[in-house]
Every structure is written in structure tokens, then in C-alpha cells.
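Schema walk-through. Below, the input block comes first and the output block second. Nothing else is stored per chain. Lengths vary across the set, and this one has 440 residues.
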Amino acid sequence: MKSNPKQKALYLALCILAAIVVWIFVDNFGDNGGPVYHTKWFRDVPVTYTGETVLTERGFMLLDEDTVTTVDLEMRGTMIDLAMLDKDYIRVTVDLSNVSRTGVQTVTSVIYGYTEEYFRQNVTVSDRTPSTITINVAELYHKTVDVRCELTGNVAEGYSAGELQINPTQIEVRGDQADVDAVSYAKVTLDLGEDATSTVTEDLPIQFYDANDQLLEDTSLQTTEETIRVTLPVYVTRELMLTMDFRESAGARMSNVTWRIEPETILVSGPAEVLNNMDSIVLDEFDLASLGSTTNYSYAIPIPEGCENLSGVTRATLRISFNDLQRSTVTASNFILTNAPEDRSVDLLTEQLSVGIFGTSADVAAITEDNILVTVDLSDFGSAVGTYTVPAEVTVVGRDVGVSGGPYRVRVTISEQSTDQPAEPDTPAGENPDTGDETT
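--- output ---
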């Protein structure tokens, strides 16, 4: 009788599964109902030292020579736990804050920990090599050295480099006396790349050189700075137009003025990232409605921050005048009362208002009293009774003409309304509220 290969594979899988179940059961309950513990060695576990800042404040430093940097640990736990445990999960931390003398010495402030909470509860250290942690502490020497910067690469054609900025320009070097004494200066290297067209700023790593300009390698030097910030401004020169921010309004349009600025342009040098996006400098804001008989205005030329005015001209003159400006006075008689109190009677005492207007000769000549509208807002007089002077807003409709003079005001009388008299709707003064026709 031939055996079935699939049946044999199934039997084999069931046997393996049964063996695993038996192994897990024995590992967890085989020692009088408790787990069976095993040990396993983990080699070259790194040692982390803390409290070096305190050591530095005391004038000490930790030397690599004779200082333990790794340990071998024998860990105790169940077979499954030890199988899951990786060396990267183990932490050996040594606290140096209690060290108070120099030389090779043993420290007792050693903490064995784990990155995972599970292993903290189920795995312990049963042995270690070396059995004690030794450190080598030396007196910390220090001195201050200058920081230099070497430039590589180049600035693009048509651009220029400004003054190199190094921050800080000096650093304190700490370490073994022989290493510190060998240092003449610190140096960083700034690479501009090919054809730099904007300011370059980088935080650069530090290297140390001796008096013969030889790089010092394999030293245990410490510094007050981890990196040095170096900035090289890249400048461009541009001719910028001088202009104004003109504000138009009714009767005061740019199409009706002639203007020029002297000088028209200035030459400015500065960071490329600032000037590359500029083609003009705005001197100030100018409201055309305020333009009168004065035609010349002087302004200081604002230079963008970090830039230089190569032209040397610090002030510019705006020469401006209207091509055609007519001023006149018209009599307004179209009044509108808005937001009148519903339980009050309002009588407008002012029947006519002289209003100043301006604009082109043609527009001003075409103005009649029908184009002038006077709006009186009574929203602030909701519970008032009596005679008041109220601000009025004058507008011109139908023509591009501005209003000058003012502020304009009218007189109104507000009285309590009779109980049997309904409130009158808002209507223009002089108009019959029943028919909408003008009264005579």
C-alpha cells in the first residue's frame, strides 16, 4: 500500500506543532509549575555615559584610554524571552555626576535597562564582563582659538561677494593638555557651488589645525560650539525706478495729472535675493485729492534693508499738477434722512447746503443740484428729542466729480410722535410722501 505524500506532510506538521506546544509548556511550567530559566551572553553592549556636563563644570574630562566602552552581559530568562531579546534593546548607563577626582577609577552608578517594558519585567543580568566599569578622568585644559573659513566654488558672473560673516569668530577648546596645546586655530569650509547667485548661509563642522597648518585628527577635543554659522552675502547691482503709490478718487484721476520724479532712477547694490525681485522703489503714498497749488514734493529715498545706494542721492522730488482742474460751489437741496427713529417726528431745518466740488472743467460745468445728494444718518439719535446739528455725507452722482470742503452738517428737530399719528417713512426732503411728487 502506497503512502500519501500529502498525508505524510500533514502528520509531520502536526508532530512539529505538538513538539512546539510541549516545549512552550515545559519552558513555562516545567520547574514545579514555574518557568524554566536559561542564560545567554550578549557581546559588546555599548556603555552610555551621562553627567559629562557636570564633569566639565568641575574641570574634568573623560578620556577614551582605560575607559570601558562596551561590556559582555549574561542575561537570564525563559528561552522564548532570550530568543526575542536583541542587543539593541539593552541599555548600560553610567552616571558620572559623582566623579570628583582624576585618574583611573571604578564607578558604581551603573544602570542596566531595556528599551522595552516587557524585558524589564522578565529578563535580568546574571553576569557581566568586565565585572566593574572603570573610567579614566583627566584634568580639563582649555584655551580660546580663532575660527577661520575657507571658501570653495565661485560667484556667478555679474554678481559680487560681500564681507564674509563668521559666528562665532572664536571658540573655546577643551581637552587633554597635549591635544589643546597643539591647536593653533579652528577652520570651517564653505562651498559656494558653481555660479552662486544668492547669499549662502550654512552651519559647518569644525576642524582643528596646528601652527604648521596641518589638520589635527584623532583628538579628544571638546568645544563650546558644535558648528559654526557662516554667511557670504552675494550682491547684485540694479538700476531701480523711483515711483509713487498714487491714490485716485472722484474728480482726481491719474489721467488728469502730469508728473515726474527727479531723479527717475538710482543705482542700488545689495543681496541678490532682495534685488532680483525688485524693479522700482515706492517713495510714499500720494492722495491725488489732496493735490492743490503746491506742485513740488520732496521725499527721502528708502533703500531696501541690507542694500547700498551707489548713486549717493538721498532725496527725490515729485513734480505733479492737474492738467485741467476746476473748482466750484453748488447748492444742494436733495436731502435723504436715514435710520430715523420710528416713534419720533423729524423735521429738517436746513433747506439748502453750499457744497464745494472739483473735477475737470467739463464735468464740473455739467453739475446741477440734481447731481448732489446729501445723506443724513440719524442712527445715533434713536431716543433723542430736540434740535441737533447732525453730520451729513455729500455725494455726487452721474459725474466723476469730487467733493471738497466739509465736514458738512445740517440742523434737524426731533420730537415725540403723537399716538394717533403713524410714523412717516424715510423720504427725500421736499417730496410728497403720498404721491412721490415734489411739493411746491
